[in-house]
Amino acid sequence: MLSLLFRNLLFTILQPGVVVVLLPYLIIRSRGYDLLPRELSATHYLGGALIVAGGLVMATCIMRFVTEGKGTISPIDPTKKLIVRGLYRYSRNPMYLGAMLILAGESIFWWSASLALYAAIVFLAFNLFIILHEEPRLRREFSSEYDDYTAKVRRWI
Description:
The chain is mostly helical. It is 71% helix and 0% strand. It has one domain: Four Helix Bundle (Hemerythrin (Met), subunit A), CATH 1.20.120. The two termini are 31 Å apart.
């Protein structure tokens, strides 16, 4: 269990950490935005709330990968069991939704068109990865169990 937690922490830093923290930070820095504005407005609070909500969604999903899926968030070390409980009852991809909430929150917090464009590109990349890689792999590994799941739960929301 400890090894699984460590591997998930490592993959969280390497994968979503790069997508939702490092790259947005580099975009913000390159555009000359202050990381923490001196005065906060309503958009800062809304953006911050979305960032926190997305982080909580992702943390909840990662714990399900450890406790139920017996695997990690990484495609190179995937879950051994199909996760269908928790947020996965409502969306087949809540981890990606959490990442998108964070990116939307960052776009709003810094009111950045560059971050909004980046978020749109990431969403497109997520869709392609899910459709072309994840869903076929899950269908191969979990066959009828995955087919039943996709009949009941939508890809997004």
